[in-house]
């Protein structure tokens, strides 16, 4: 198994130390993912900025969860699926929605299903989306802004999912109860 260093604030490169201190302030702990990303202050900063920007997008808590978890599950990220399950719980997202995403089941509403479908189309087809697929997404109540915001989330998730695959990042203690492994 491949692994990368999981830095502490003390062991991190100088450029990462203030970013890690910010992580501790924001989360009350240093997430292992942030410790991994700290080897490159640039990728850690990029990840944190993309995360902030996506949380400030037009999506509500359920929609943020659908996009994040669709990508996490599709990429088979054993670190991010549990972490975003915990995050969804903290955002008061219905646990039934989170479980449906984790188990690759249908969404509870047509609009959330359209969001899930578009996210997976973008991921699986590397951004190649047909006119019909785009029209179906728009008919569900979304627009161009949301297409681009899915790409924003995908940018964030590529950083975390791929880094976690290479690092074999251990799940943080607060999320161990939400452990997950891809089955489909």
Written overview of the protein:
- It is a single chain.
- By secondary structure, the chain is mainly alpha-helical.
- Helix content is 62%, strand content 0%.
- The chain is built from nine helices and no strands.
- Helix 4 packs across helix 9, helix 5 packs antiparallel against helix 6 and helix 7 packs antiparallel against helix 8.
- The protein is globular.
- The relative contact order is 0.17.
- The model has no long low-confidence stretch (mean pLDDT 97).
Helices and strands in order:
Layout: H1 17-27, H2 32-37, H3 41-55, H4 61-75, H5 80-90, H6 95-102, H7 110-124, H8 131-139, H9 144-167
Helix pairs in contact: 3-9, 4-5, 4-6, 4-7, 4-9, 5-6, 7-8, 7-9
- Figure out the total of helices: 9
Largest sheet: none
Give the helix level as a range of percent.
Answer: 55-70%
Q: What would you call the shape?
A: globular
Cα-atom radius of gyration = 16 Å
Structural class: mainly alpha
Low-confidence stretches: none
Amount of beta strand: under 5%
Mean pLDDT: 97
Could you give the count of β-strands?
0
Sketch the topology as an H/E string, one letter per element. Answer: HHHHHHHHH
Report the end-to-end length measured between terminal Cα atoms: 22 Å
């Amino acid at each position: 198994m491949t692994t990368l260093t999981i830095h502490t604030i003390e062991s991190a490169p100088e450029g990462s130390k203030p970013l890690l201190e910010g992580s501790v302030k924001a989360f009350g702990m240093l997430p292992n993912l942030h410790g991994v990303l700290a080897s490159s202050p640039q990728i850690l900063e990029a990840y944190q900025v993309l995360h902030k920007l996506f949380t400030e997008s037009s999506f509500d808590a359920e929609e943020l969860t659908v996009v994040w978890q669709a990508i996490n599950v599709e990429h088979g990220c054993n670190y991010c699926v549990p972490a975003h399950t915990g995050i969804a719980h903290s955002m008061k997202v219905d646990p039934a929605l989170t479980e449906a995403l984790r188990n690759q089941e249908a969404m509870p509403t047509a609009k959330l299903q359209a969001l899930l479908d578009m996210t997976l189309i973008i991921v699986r087809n590397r951004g190649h989306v047909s006119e019909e697929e785009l029209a179906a997404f728009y008919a569900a109540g979304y627009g161009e802004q949301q297409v681009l915001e899915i790409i924003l989330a995908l940018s964030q998730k590529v950083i975390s999912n791929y880094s976690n695959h290479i690092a074999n990042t251990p799940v943080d203690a607060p999320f161990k109860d939400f452990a997950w492994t891809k089955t489909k």
